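Q: I'm writing a short methods note and want an example of a predicted protein-small molecule complex. Could you take the sequence and the SMILES for pyridoxal-5'-phosphate and return the bound structure as tokens? Please keep the output block clean; save any remarks for afterwards.
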Amino acid sequence: MTDLDPYLESFDIEPGYLDWAAFGPLSGAVRSEASADAELFGTGRRSSIDLVSNRSGEARALLAELLDAADDEVVLQPSTSYGLMHALYGLSGQVLISRAEFPSLTVTATRAAALRGDLAVQWFEPAGGFVTVDAVAEAVTEQTTAVAVSLVDFRTGYLADLAGLRDVIGDRLLIVDAIQGFGAVDADFAAADVVCGNGYKWLRAGRGTGWARFGDRARARIEPVLSGFDGVAGGLPMDEVPPPAPTADAYQVTHPDQLAAARLATALGEVRSAGVAAIAAAVADRADQILFLAERYGVPVATPADRDRRAGIVALAPEPAHAAALAAALANRGVVFTARAGLVRLAAHAGTGEDTMVLLGDALAEFAAGGTW
Ligand SMILES: Cc1ncc(COP(=O)(O)O)c(C=O)c1O
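A: Understood, no commentary inside the block.
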């Protein structure tokens, strides 16, 4: 038995689920702790309320450990997008963003630039939507003050090289949307200045479990413009308006949802026990298997072949005329996936069973057999 086995055994979902990039079914531990915490919150006992509330601190400490950061650089958020809003609304200069990024970056940066007189979005269109080190090196200018990127691209599954990006952008800010990889990929988070995520996909913690890390350089350069009453040092301000806290607390509005934070703490505990490297290797193996099946049945893919440049997402890119047939073959076999903009996105987790891979293989075989190409 390895440390990973209990984690793998904790996946108790029905076969066919390959949509972890959309939603991660809650782990058994998260489900049972959540209902126990809800009961504690119903007692009216101070000690019970404190017990659940204190899990916010536990979640922050676990995040800090997994992000290789100090505890006070981490702050809980309602979602990834809220964390990115704190980062982008407080930014000045020019932020480099691929047009193909998830709208949590593109829309937020556009709104922030419209509001602030001193921020502009520097759009670029890297080949294949892959925000490679070379593409960024070519696109940055002297005016660029920050680069914002997804750790794992929601469409293609491209895995950004955070250390490589750091090398080419010098001391400009590196802002990372990590929701599609955190906990499922072994990334160099210390290379980033801001990292934001949420626990409702790969962490299996449900919604409301967002978080953000603001490192030293980020806190020095990003104004906490959306800072609320809970973003100050020293507790509830009374009859005064203190400045925002010097820590990441500055980038928060009010208290976190304690039940959500407790779910996050439970899910992070499961990841820490299993080990990110081991989870990431198992996720990559499943992605390899999906790519193998796609190749075997002649289905083109939009995901990089290089194992180092992908994580859990594999995007099938059928000819437009064949997309409906592919989606139908998958649905007929009970495979759960996301089809969007001509791509069929499959995302297996470490605990995705062989039974699911068999369903996928059968669906792709059926698709290939019915093909007229
Ligand atoms: C890359 C990426 N960023 C952000 C989000 C949205 O995250 P949240 O709901 O935590 O704001 C998603 C959701 O699919 C996503 O794929």
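A: Remarks, as requested: The first helix runs from residue 4 to 9. The longest strand covers residues 144-150.
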